[in-house]
Amino acid sequence: MATQHSRSAARIMMAPAVFLLLVWMLVPLCMTLWFSFRNYLPLRGGDLGFAGFNNFTRFVSSSAFWPSVLTTLIIVGGVLLISIVFGVLLAILLDKPMWGQGIVRILVIAPFFVMPTVSALVWKNMFMDPVNGVLAHLWRFFGADPLVWLQDASVFSIILIVSWQWLPFATLILLTAIQSLDSEQLEAAEIDGATPLARFFFISLPHLSRAITIVVLIQTIFVLAVFAEIFVTTGGAFGTRTLTYLIYQRVLESQNIGLGSAGGVYAIILANIVAIFLMRIVGKNLDN
Amino acid sequence: MARAVTSQRKALNTVVAWSIGLLIFFPILWTILTSFKSEAEAIANPPVFMFFDWTLENYSVVLERSNYMRFLTNSVIIAGGSTLLGVLIAVPAAWSMAFVPSRRTKDILLWMLSTKMLPAVGVLYPIYLLCIRLGVLDNRAALVVILMLINLPIIVWMLYTYFREIPGEILEAARMDGATLKDEILYVLTPMAIPGIASTLLLNFILAWNEAFWTLNLTSVDAAPLTAFIASYSSPEGLFFAKLSAASTMAIAPILILGWFSQKQLVRGLTFGAVK
Amino acid sequence: MGRIQLKQVKKAFGDVVVIPPLDLEIVDGEFVVFVGPSGCGKSTLLRLIAGLEDTTSGVIEIDGEDATALPPAKRRLAMVFQSYALYPHMTVRKNIAFPLRMAKMDQAEQDRRIEAAAKALNLTDYLHRRPGQLSGGQRQRVAIGRAIVREPAAFLFDEPLSNLDAALRVGMRMEISELHKKLKTTMVYVTHDQVEAMTMADKIVVLQAGVIEQVGSPLDLYHTPRNKFVAGFIGSPRMNLVEGTEAAKHNATTIGVRPEHIDISTTEGLWQGTVGVAEHLGSDTFLHVHGVPGCDPVTVRIAGDVALNHGDTVHLTPRADQIHKFDAQGLRIS
Lengths: 288, 276, 334
Fold this sequence. Notes:
GO cellular component, one term (chain A): plasma membrane
Shape of chain C: globular
Strand order of the largest sheet of chain C: 6-7-8-3-9-10
Keywords (chain A): Cell membrane, Membrane, Transmembrane, Transmembrane helix, Transport
Transmembrane segments (chain A): 12-37, 64-94, 106-123, 155-178, 211-237, 257-279
GO biological process, one term (chain A): transmembrane transport
Number of domains of chain C: 2
Organism (chain A): Pararhodobacter oceanensis
Largest sheet of chain A: 2 strands, antiparallel
CATH architecture of the largest domain in chain C: 3-Layer(aba) Sandwich
Shape of chain A: globular
Oligomer: heterotrimer
Number of strands of chain A: 2
Structural class of chain C: alpha+beta
Order of helices and strands of chain A: HEEHHHHHHHHHHHH
């Protein structure tokens, strides 16, 4: 509801943002698509011509591809599992009356604000170092042999580091969602004779389902793109090469742009599948 | 009305929650503590917790050796510049979408969101190549623009959700009172939206500060921010725990403090208004 | 200075026509009230005059000049919104000064006008406060103050009293009426409350579905409603509309009798019925009588207190000279 005048003003004021994002999206996307069909090796003669679907088939048939997909899925799944399960429990706990609630919340949320390179490095050296790491001390204290975390349990270690960063995010969002639950609903259920467990499963959890879905989708998109944590810790070794890292290696380390770009196209498609679900939820929310 | 809770129950909650909270916070706490230890104490077995000789030596070593100030300046310029630029571009756009919605507004908002979903690695080489061709690899201005573009969807969304809470009648009143579009945005909308704009600035500053894909891949020396500074500690300096801790503390301390102020906005900003 | 003419003004949102082409003239100095049920297009009509919406077609003239394409700021109109729309970050003084500041008026003149308005509206002590620290009635007065300092050609009010509690509403109603008597400026006032319309207006415009049902003075509408809709909408309690054989006796499809125009007796009368609910207000008694063919219940208004209660049998007689007759289209038969 507005006048013609304000509508045309609105169009002009929206233009810079729309234009910039359009360029930002289309130009690199088209270039990636273009390169993915080229035989492009900057260090070995440059653009060697059209490659057809060669890059796409080679990327998929390379021995590194399926392991990297598996690693990606394990890492994303592991992080989601940890952050949702513990996130729900923590959110419920933090919603309970206690002393110093504000401070506990600050403690819990803090890891989210830690720079990824810092958290990776701190975990790698000060916690997971097999000689001097805190975990090594702890293992020895209980009489066990310290683990060489980033070699022997490399994927688990990455999951641990990434979860440490994303659990706070999940907790914070789930806590916000819990706090928006009308306490009268719970009281009504209690009067209707529901046990605490029943109240959790039939009232609280359904109320949280939307927030959980959002956490799952957002974290999936971000965790699919995890880079610094691997770059700093294992450099993709010991089975921690994710799809993102594989593409990075193809592009910047072995400088096979065509192959890397084909991988990039796969990554974009994968992310878009997740994004569609997220956008549908967000879009529904816009209507009211 | 909440009922009174027995203090035993409350004490139990408190103990459990504090234990978990401290456990989660422990790596940060440990890093901060270690930064004040000597290298020997940092790797002492068994580890020392609080009772050691507190020293600032690590900080002075790190500051001397690695030109910390240059990295810090780069971080401030890149994070601050990209956020300010983003807000300047996003305020008019968010105004349009919040107060003059059309049938396409929803689609535009969702499309903007979708650009945020584009995996960075998918467009790594094109951006890398463009930077080389334009001669802006390892250039602060280029990173300002790139990080601005990365966060622009979030900035537009956050401002949009804040603006939507401002009643349109107030802007119409300003229009009736003779305000031009510029007056309306400058004297009425912006002052009313200051809390929202501040939260948006804060959260996006944090996100830009911590961004570690483009800053690692597109910088080497001149434009390298703190993310790269820390990554350079990967080895062999990383084995000097106390110095690593001092460097880490300096990289995260400012943002940790800002971050604590922005908890609430974080939820709104990162869920695109879907959870409030 | 404040004559507003609408010529064939039409408003459509997409394919939905909210206001079919409509003509209306508002004379300088008049207090005009647009009244109608919610969704009748009265607010849209006001916003068209204000310039906050585009007209789809037609012409709006203010003082003989075509203002159809003028932006709101250029129309010399002031508006008071339902939510008051005060600027929350500005003090009362700054709120009132805002239109003057936008007009780049010199400071001395600004101050003079603000002081005068504040005095007239009893706001002098509150000039340094912010809207959040004021009561509903005070906010309302600030909104009016912001409107009057501009000395506009006409004031537009969009349901300004609907956010106030009942007692305050009566007080503000009087204040606005007095303001009009003092300023003698054209006022266009939108409300869904027919009591506000009856008490304040020089001229009432009754709207339904974007169509003007009738224009006239309050008593015109009360005494000679042009159709069944106006008859039912104006007057409280509502007019009784009787259909069927009783109406046919008067050669009409429907006859209407206002509750205050029915004589009641416990022994004899034209219609017989039983009292359902009896509302004893002290000054008046409203009886809702069941059993009259063609209208259930019939509402009767009796001055003072009467000893009639639920279940009593009563006889009703409409006063012959106060019966309104309507044809099959709902139009008045005179």
